[in-house]
Specification:
By secondary structure, the protein is an alpha+beta fold. The chain is about 20% helix and about 35% strand.
């Protein structure tokens, strides 16, 4: 197995342009294909442990995005005016619902609470997460003996992708409209949007696995032993958010910026059997 991993190379592209206008790849579902082809090597050491660290009040463990955590992250990274009473009140609904319901009716008492919360937010004394991971699936096509690679099929190839969807509401998404209704409200949040987009610092292409014939045969044998008839592999993207951009014109999508920390590929959906690590450039 070590020989397989050491000989593995995965094709991806890294061009220093952010393709904001390109379609978003939603990795909770089937990725959207796009272009590109500069090769980069991939090795396959064991993936880094998901240990919990904290830097100040920033969460350093990787976790799947949720509306609650992305809303807080975007606030702490400067997406909104933290001097606004409406923003602080919405934050209180999100994080301190019981306190909000109990104290908001008192003008003077709530004003003191609002001031204290605003000071904490502006000083970043409140906990917030900066490390997230999104996952997806790729399907291998038939092995090409001419180019010695497995192309990705079923619309799972990524070509020149400029952004990843961290969170989207509605059908076939990783959250629900009810999650957007804060503290018993009958309507979605007026401050925090339902969609969060991670802008890549450079476009990404991940459209095939390149490996010699003997190793490719071993891979297919392992898939057969696992009864993996669809030739599926599972991809995990780990991201570090560093700044919040602006909302789109409709005010429903918030752009987030940061860096891609790692891309790992696994044999299983639970991501316990590591297959390869894509080398980032």
């Amino acid at each position: 197995m070590r020989a397989t991993r050491s000989m593995m190379r995965i094709l991806m592209c890294a061009v220093f342009v952010v393709c904001i206008g390109l379609p978003t790849a939603m990795f909770a579902q089937t990725p959207i294909p796009l272009d590109g082809s500069a090769p980069a090597a991939a090795s396959a050491p064991s993936p880094p442990p998901n240990t919990e660290e904290k830097r100040g009040n920033r969460g350093e463990a990787f976790a799947s995005p949720t509306f609650r955590e992305l809303a807080v992250t975007s606030l702490m990274l400067g997406a909104y005016d933290t001097n606004s009473n409406e923003v602080i009140d919405e934050y209180a609904k999100l994080m301190y619902c019981s306190l909000y319901q109990e104290k908001f009716k008192s003008d003077f008492e709530w004003n003191n609470i609002r001031r204290e919360l605003g000071n904490k937010v502006r000083a970043r004394r409140e906990y917030f997460r900066t490390h997230y991971e999104v996952t997806g699936v790729v399907y291998l096509g038939r092995y090409s003996f001419e180019t010695q690679d497995f192309p990705f099929i079923k619309d799972t190839a990524l070509v020149n992708v400029g952004s990843l969807s961290l969170l989207a509401s509605g059908r076939n998404s990783n959250t629900t409209p009810f999650a957007l209704r804060l503290c018993g409200s009958e309507t979605p949040s007026a401050i925090f949007p339902p969609y969060y987009i991670f802008l890549l610092s450079q476009p990404l292409t991940l459209d095939r696995i390149k490996m010699p014939m003997d190793e490719a045969e071993k891979l297919l044998q392992r898939m057969d032993a696992m009864e993996n008839k669809e030739r599926a592999l599972f991809v995990r993207f780990r991201l570090r958010l560093q700044a919040a951009g602006g909302l789109d014109q409709r005010g429903i999508r918030l752009m987030m910026r940061g860096e891609m920390v790692s891309i790992d590929i696994f044999y299983d959906q639970e991501m316990t059997k590591h297959f390869a690590t894509v080398a980032l450039k």
